[in-house]
Design a protein that fits this description.
The chain has 508 residues and is an alpha+beta fold. Among the domains are: 92 residues, Sandwich (Immunoglobulin-like), CATH 2.60.40.780; 180 residues, q2cbj1_9rhob like domain (Jelly Rolls, Sandwich), CATH 2.60.120.620. It is 19% helix and 27% strand. It has 14 helices and 27 strands. The strands form 7 sheets. It has a 9-stranded mixed sheet, with helices on one face. Strands 6-3-9-10 form a 4-stranded mixed sheet, with no helix packed on it. It has a 4-stranded antiparallel sheet with strand order 5-4-7-8, with no helix packed on it. The protein is elongated and about 85 Å long. It starts with 11 loop residues before the first helix and ends in an 8-residue tail after the last helix.
Length: 508
């Protein structure tokens, strides 16, 4: 579920990967030796002549200018340094891109084309070589060194159909090679090799409202959804690739993790000495040190009484009262990073996402701030509250809140769950941890009590990247009454920015 950003939109990803386009009149090489001259350094040594005669080869139209289309249909070239130096305003960057960037494939004379290279692999710097004779890697040709790409960088290159590029590490070892073919303007170096994308594969609008939404500036305001559904209208076809779009460094996501080894233990120990809430420990490593209470020997599980005031709980529920729908589970993730939704028999509850008015409501802000104060983890790491309604017989069978693939996400895994009870339940509806047994032999079952927060970790104390399988839990069927609650999931890294860019699995 996409969230509304709690902070100004940053566009580091766009600015690091998008190349501006030009048209076929202003950005063409007028000499057949431009490529050779450019890669021999003439763009720098003979800049005035090369800028005029070989603008495509010297990247004068892709790196240092954007094209603004006026209301009268005329085009005005505007100087900017989009890939180097200060970051321009994201709105200007988006809106300055002309429609149909793939027209760049047809903008040069003869068979000349422009291709975009993206370093989306986990390796370090990559050297890009040009094989002027079109030799293949099987023939063992080395080629001429053109430039170096660091991880996460991109570059637009003028070339010709049939030419071959070789990508190598700094020792000269070939990582991948590819031949320039028609309608293959975008090449991504990934850990699996070279992936080529054309307009049919990546550049399409899948929603009829795309042109109108792009005109309303939604490419800036809701980039995740728009990149996936309206990639052509937003001139962002290459960003559909999550290896390009969702790199933590390009998103400006803080690299400092919320939890380091030992962090889970430190947090729950702090709860024991806190005087602000009535804390009950249900499970802890080693069990009850005094052997006077029926506390399980297992991962930390605790409740904080009176954590949510009755008024705050009532306000949160009121803002989503008309939005409840059948809950879904997470399905598989496709190559573009979009996760399918599964309606399963194991989860029969209803939920509503606390976004928009709900998320900005003072009561929601207050509860989130309270969680931030207790955990020391900033709210940027939190998903929007998932508000739940369980009616007669509804349940959620045993499951885990962390997927073993979550470490691939820019936001990292869910590390804590704050489960907020927003109502009492006459009978049933307990939260059960079936793998955690008390000394008495019973499993941990927490009865819903209005205002109480139930807290547990999804990860191990000694390795916050590893799932702790013992915190599988279930919502037992409601026998009498209605259960209202809310999930507050906390991630290892910033969640809000990756979510804006559609890097958290869901886009609508």
């Amino acid at each position: 579920m996409l969230r509304i950003a709690r902070q100004p939109l940053r566009a580091a990803l766009v600015l690091a990967t998008l190349a501006a386009a030009s048209d076929g009149h202003d950005c063409v090489d007028t000499h057949n030796q431009c490529l050779e001259w450019g890669w021999k350094g003439e763009c720098e040594r003979n800049a005035p002549y090369m800028a005029k005669s070989c603008p495509l080869t010297c990247s004068q139209c892709s790196r240092n200018a954007t094209l603004e289309v006026g209301v009268d249909g005329t085009a005005v070239m505007e100087e900017t340094d989009a890939l180097h130096g200060d970051v321009p305003d994201p709105q200007r960057k988006w809106t300055s891109l002309i429609r149909n960037p793939l027209a760049a494939m047809e903008r040069t004379e003869s068979d000349g084309v422009s291709v975009d290279l993206y370093h989306a692999a986990s390796v370090g710097p990559v050297d890009v070589y040009w094989l002027s004779d079109g030799s293949t890697r099987d023939e063992g040709a080395v080629g001429s060194l053109m430039f170096r790409l660091n991880a996460g960088e991109s570059r637009r290159v003028g070339t010709f159909l049939g030419h071959v590029f070789r990508l190598a590490d700094t020792s000269g070892k070939t990582l991948a090679s590819f031949r320039v073919m028609p309608h293959r303007p975008t090449f991504h170096l990934t850990d699996e090799g070279i992936e080529a994308y054309n307009d049919e594969e990546m550049c399409r609008d899948s929603d009829p409202s795309c042109p109108d939404r792009a005109a309303r500036n939604d490419c800036v305001n809701a980039p995740g959804w728009m990149v996936m559904k309206c990639s052509r209208s937003c001139e962002a076809c290459h960003l559909r690739d999550p290896q390009v779009r969702c790199r933590r460094d390009l998103l400006n996501v803080k690299q400092t993790p919320a939890l380091t080894p030992g962090g889970v233990e430190a947090f729950f120990q702090s709860l024991l000495v806190s005087q602000e809430y009535n804390v009950t420990i249900h499970s802890r490593p080693g069990g009850d040190p005094d052997l006077t209470k029926d506390i399980a020997d297992g991962p930390w599980v605790a409740t904080l009484a009176d954590f949510v005031t009755e008024e705050d709980g009532r306000n949160i529920l009121a803002t989503v009262s008309s939005q409840f729908a059948r809950s879904t589970d997470q399905g598989s993730v496709d190559k573009y990073g979009e996760q399918s939704k599964i309606v399963s028999k194991s989860r029969t509850s209803e939920n509503a996402w606390c976004t928009g008015h709900c998320e900005s409501h003072p009561s929601t802000v207050e509860v989130m701030s309270r969680i931030e104060k207790v955990t020391g983890i900033p709210t940027e790491n939190y998903e929007s509250f998932q508000v739940l309604r369980y009616q007669l017989g509804q349940e959620y069978r045993a499951h885990h809140d962390m997927s073993r693939t979550d470490n691939r996400l820019a936001c990292g895994p869910r590390v804590y769950t704050f489960f907020l009870y927003l109502s009492d339940v006459e009978e049933g509806g307990e939260t059960e941890f079936p793998l955690i047994k008390r000394p008495s032999g019973t499993t941990i079952k927490v009865k819903p009590t209005r205002g109480t927060a139930l807290v547990w970790p999804s990860v191990k104390n000694d390795d916050p990247t590893a799932q702790d399988p013992r915190t599988r839990h279930a919502a037992l069927p409601v026998i009498k009454g209605t259960k209202f609650a809310a999930n507050a999931w906390i991630h290892q890294f910033d969640y809000s920015e990756p979510n804006i860019w559609g890097c958290t699995g869901a886009f609508d």
